[in-house]
């Protein structure tokens, strides 16, 4: 399938996943639909599980942070929605070349130029977003591996603080690179 229809389907499914909060059965049904997408694409359950494993620590931190402020059922549903969208986004990126995805996004947003929208900037933002999730997940995995090697038990404070520092350093480096290239 071409990148353009994939982006439209992604947007529609993401909206459906976001609105699935009011129904107990909708989120599992939508996740099953995403699983079906992996199977139809010929990727299989191993690729799906690999995507879940990559973001497991980010999801854990997200869940724990929400449990502080929200009822458990709401926190689990929110985390499930985010995980479903991440796995769906991974399906799109696994089956579509990133340049094709960015070109389709920029082409579809071109009519909005007359309203002051810069499709190239939005395409760049999309590219950075697509690459940020695996980078942050990689930071989380590295931190946990280093802690295991030192025998440090998993505690939210000893995990989140280094993850936050690494994520902020990465975003600062990324901002410096964009400014050096004249993107503001």
Automatic annotation (TrEMBL):
Keywords: Membrane, Transmembrane, Transmembrane helix. It comes from Marisediminicola antarctica. It is found in: Membrane. PANTHER family: PROTEIN ABCI12, CHLOROPLASTIC. GO terms for cellular component: plasma membrane. It is a multi-pass membrane protein. The chain crosses the membrane at residues 50-70, 82-102, 122-140. CDD domains: EcfT. The keyword Translocase does not apply. InterPro entries: ABC/ECF_trnsptr_transmembrane. This is Cobalt ABC transporter permease. The lineage of its organism: Bacteria, Bacillati, Actinomycetota, Actinomycetes, Micrococcales. It holds the Pfam family CbiQ.
